[in-house]
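Annex B. Sample input.
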Amino acid sequence: MKRPLKEILSEMSTNEKIKYIWEYYKYYIIGFIVLVIFVVYTVYSVANKKEDILNIVMITDYANPEQVEEVKENIYQNLLTEEEKESSNIIIQTLRLKSEDMQAGVEMQKLAAQLSAGDIDFFIADQEYFDQMNQDGQLLPFNELEGTSELNLPEDQLVSGNDNGVTGIKINSNSIFDGLIQKDEEKILFTPINVQNKEIIARFVEYYIDNEQ
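Annex B, continued. Sample output.
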């Protein structure tokens, strides 16, 4: 009959007890320690995970990662409040539609999933891509957003949809996107109609206009 652990340990010195317990229970002890570390790490990660408050997708054949980061940091510092900076991220994704490699195909699938879920706040693309979405009624009129009924920009910088709502803003290299748009190149800034966070959309449009004045 197996003797109780308490009885076995009672006959040992402190060092012997430690050695005995470690020898027979080390795998349980190691497993418990790993479990505790995993739980602590998971709780810490969830508690400190930042929300993607603004997601911009730029369709371009050229984008310097350093310049993308610089533009993103500038928007982050000037658009978000101090409280938002503690819990929020800004994302600028760049995508080459004309690329035929496998990675481009994966990115297109990811883009389609984000678009369906309403997770893309802005596109920056050329006229052709804008026209495709604009003609299908897939774009949100900026002048219907709260606080942006008057878009104080030159008329030739505004692009309207079928219902005469302003669905696009023409942008060039002389803007907050300096470095991402090549000289003499023109892109259009627009928003999918199923976007989730209209408050941040309105704030960004106001921020963009203020920097154009």
